[in-house]
Amino acid sequence: MHRVLCARRLSRLLALLVASVTVTGALGQHVVVSSEGPLHSIGAAIRQAQPGDSILVLKGVYNEPTILVDKAVTIIGKDFPVLDGKGENQIMTVVADSVTIQGLEFRNVGVTFVEDRAALKIDGAAFCRVEDNRIIDAYFGIYLARTSFCRLSGNTIQGSGLTETRSGNGIHLWYSKEIEIVSNEIRGHRDGIYFEFVEDSAVIDNISESNLRYGLHFMFSDRCTYHSNVFRANDAGVAVMYSENVEMVGNRFEHNWGSAVFGLLLKDITDSIIDDNVFVKNTIGIYAEGANRNVFEHNDFIENGWAVKIMANAQDNWFTHNNFIDNTFDVATNSRHHSSRFSKNHWDAYQGYDLDRDGYGDIPFHPVRLFSLIVERTETSILLLRSLFIQVLDAVEHTLPSLTPDTLADEMPVMVRL
User: Fold this and answer.
1) Residue range(s) defining the domain that contains residue 166
2) What CATH number corresponds to the domain at position 159?
């Protein structure tokens, strides 16, 4: 049902399995680090270790210069030992393949405007795993650059930036491919998850909420899948830009309110699928500009200001089997001429009839209110929304639909909720 790209997912899982065998299959030694023991430095433990070794870090607070992981080791924390950057430096940099980081707490990465300083940065490596860590008060949380076949899962990332300029992204990917980001929680950063020049990657079952800009923001990132995530109460919603062959399936876009806030902003996106998502209580559910040849199906639009705003330069999109429930405006646009199509959607505002009882309305539904066109040209007219004049205007337009776009009509509206 969800159209996940099975072949790509299988390729990723096989690659990660190979990576796991590479790390855990070797007859490595165990190195123990304790804040009160003879070996009390993680950096020293890495220098002492051999590829394939495991480093167990016991509970405590560790203040070290930036820790360089340049060997294929597994670093596991017991009872969440704290790695404290003291607000001054990046805490850990991974440059080796097949590294696992698990069960650590990273704290206090200071703000800098001259470098992308992170709690954990993986640079130029492959087959790494970052699992079940806590990251608190970091500039950037987890930063991947030029990486491939890595997995980030079960991490909790909590930022504390008060402005966008003084906050980095929770999970940041740049020039990477075949990455899996699964079951993480990200709050309080600039963007919860950020992709730039990323290919063939998957974002699954994450919660990204209360971030200062976007819950998810990606650009120039093709053939990626976003599945079963929650994007809630972010300052500008979610932005998807300059990409193609994207799949957004089974996500929730909730409570993204504000004067320029979207559940999902689509800009210059082509040949993509937006399927089985829920858009509830957003200023705008979906805003599409320059978005072409995309399919929107099985989505629920509930109690949004605008369910869908689709601009005239968004061409050849297909909306089918969606539910539009209790939205102020179901569809709005800036033009009377469109090539996008609506068919077999359920509209709670539909007042038609089904005499032949085939489940579809016998007369088309025009979802674009005349008042929405007025608001598009004069935003302050929204103050008249509940006035008697607008009620009369809606009644006249319903009887004689002559000014709203003829091409944005559902010829087969579904009578019952899908």
Assistant:
1) 1-235
2) 2.160.20.10
